[in-house]
């Protein structure tokens, strides 16, 4: 029964629209007595019917750390979105960064990492990778094919993130991947901002696509998770690292994320529309020197954005027109709807003051403090009113 019902849909799924796919990927209702959603299977021990099956491990599930029907449903859904050979689900977005780096970097290797990356990724590289005998070089996000000049005999990984965290520089991933592959390096990309709905890393030559599922996939600021999706060439080694490290997720969390994936397309459309509306409006505000959003015509790499991305999400930054810490804090403290908090991708708007102190290659030359905004699902006019009051409180412009 399950095969009759599910197989024809699977075969046609690739050609269907984004939201149709999001509504059905990962599911096999007739494997669950017809229930639309998979069961939440809580489990450590899995029983084998006899000694021979146990000895050969010849069944779908063998132990809780190696997956459950619930985590399989989510993993299948992520593979369908990413076009990947396999996906591991890990306990946080940060783990989705650190586990593939651990899986592919060995003592004596050299690793290239983009300078505009998520701060905790840099701390992992500077502290743990270095301690493990891996040398790290940071490069400018706009390097493109010139990355060739930084490649060494022992460069094993080129790590990318586009747009860059907080400052939103884009990378020419296709150009970088081509050079990296000609030198047998593995290309990884933190694609949290765009999600696979707006950019599919594997289609651009990336080997390993990384996603903080805490953000848009979970979407409600209540679950921590990471997705790491690999192409056929890298899947075995990534999967092996997950087995060796035991960094699995619970079925409860997998269920929550699969539930939210169903609405990710329409949520992202709303985030995109509201964020672009607010970004355009902010460009006209006298207290704002600059808006850093790749979807704006004013973004220096807007052409690259249009070439590569199907859309933009709800996260961008503004540069205040002069001032310093006092003005940044005055802005943040005047906000009433935007919360002051880390993370993003949830339904509620957030703001943080950004520091570029850790950057070594591209500190940027900004007119004033940087504030990162996550535009949530609230009404745009209310968000503009909130921002307008906060800009007035800066006494700039
Ligand atoms: C938030 C974030 C992460 C880490 O995700 P957590 O689930 O918070 O650990 C990784 N990369 C980027 C780009 C992020 O924004």
Label the structural class: alpha/beta
Q: What can be said about the biggest beta sheet? A: 7 strands, mixed
Tally of discrete structural domains:
2
Strand content: 15-25%
Please tell me the overall pLDDT. Answer: 95
Query: What is the CATH superfamily label of the largest domain?
Result: Type I PLP-dependent aspartate aminotransferase-like (Major domain)
Query: In sequence order, what are the helices and strands, one letter per element?
Result: HHHHEHEHEEHEHEEHHHEHEHEEEH
Radius of gyration: 22 Å
Shape: globular
Number of helices: 14
CATH fold topology of the largest domain? Aspartate Aminotransferase, domain 2
Segments where pLDDT lies below 50 for 5+ residues? 1-8
**CATH classification, class level of the largest domain:** Alpha Beta
Distance between the termini: 67 Å
Percent helix, as a range, is: 25-40%
Q: Which compounds are bound in this model?
A: pyridoxal-5'-phosphate
Give the strand line-up of the largest sheet.
1-7-6-5-4-2-3
Query: What is the number of E strands?
Result: 12
CATH architecture of the largest domain: 3-Layer(aba) Sandwich
Catalytic activity: L,L-cystathionine + H2O = L-homocysteine + pyruvate + NH4(+)
Protein name: Cystathionine beta-lyase
Family: Belongs to the trans-sulfuration enzymes family.
Organism: Limoniibacter endophyticus
